[in-house]
Structures are given as structure tokens and as C-alpha cells.
């Protein structure tokens, strides 16, 4: 898992220019036999009210406040390519 997180953090830094990445693990819902990871880019422009565990304040925003779907798709492809390049490098 460590190698994957390092590679994903590097890919997020390459594509998004984030300063750090946060990793959160959730595995407490009864009946679920899997782990649920969130790897969240910590951007330089985050305000104090958005850092650390408060990063989840971005969830539940209105559609107008979200990154448009086509841009989300483009970023996902760029992050996947950067992630793959980490394996090759």
C-alpha cells in the first residue's frame, strides 16, 4: 500500500501542484469487508478552515461550486497517466 500511496501522491503533485496529500482510511461500516481510502490533494490555496480533517468540508458542495464533470474526467486521465509513469520510472 505504501508504494501505491507514494506514487499517487506524486501523480497528484505533478498534475495538480498540490503541496501535500492527506490519506484517510475508513473501514467501520458493518457488513463491509473492505477498506475505503481517500487520497486528497492539499492545495496551497486552502484556507485554515479547509486543512487537516476539515478538508472534508468540500463534500456536499453545490454543482455550481464543483469542478465540471468534463474537467474531472480530464484530470482523472492525467492523474492516471502520471501514476503509470511513476511505475515506469
Q: Can you walk me through this structure?
A:
The longest helix has 20 residues, at 69-88. The chain has one domain (2-81). Helix content is 39%, strand content 16%. It contains two helices and two strands; from the N terminus they run αββα. It is α+β, with helices and mostly antiparallel strands. The chain is globular and about 35 Å long. The chain has helices at 2-16, 69-88, and strands spanning 20-26, 36-42. Strands 1-2 form a two-stranded antiparallel sheet. α1 (2-16) packs across α2.
Biggest β-sheet description: 2 strands, antiparallel
What string gives the helices and strands in order?
A: HEEH
Task: State the distance separating the first and last CA atoms.
Answer: 18 Å
Average pLDDT, rounded to a whole number, is 92
Helix fraction bin? 25-40%
Number of strands: 2
Can you count the helices? 2
Low-confidence stretches: none
Strand order of the largest sheet: 1-2
Supply the key terms.
globular; 2 helices; two-stranded antiparallel sheet; 89 residues
Protein topology:
Elements: H1 2-16, E1 20-26, E2 36-42, H2 69-88
Antiparallel strand pairs: 1-2
Brief rundown of the structure:
39% of the residues lie in helices and 16% in strands. With 89 residues, the protein is of the alpha+beta class.
Amino acid at each position: 500500500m505504501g508504494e501505491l500511496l507514494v506514487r499517487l501522491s506524486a501523480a497528484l503533485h505533478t498534475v495538480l501542484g498540490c503541496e501535500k496529500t492527506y490519506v484517510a482510511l475508513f473501514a467501520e461500516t458493518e457488513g463491509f469487508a473492505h477498506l475505503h481510502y481517500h487520497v486528497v490533494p492539499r492545495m496551497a490555496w486552502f484556507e485554515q478552515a479547509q486543512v487537516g480533517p476539515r478538508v472534508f468540508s468540500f463534500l456536499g458542495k453545490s454543482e455550481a461550486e464543483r469542478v465540471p464533470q468534463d474537467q474531472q474526467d480530464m484530470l482523472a486521465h492525467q492523474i492516471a497517466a502520471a501514476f503509470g509513469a511513476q511505475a515506469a520510472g
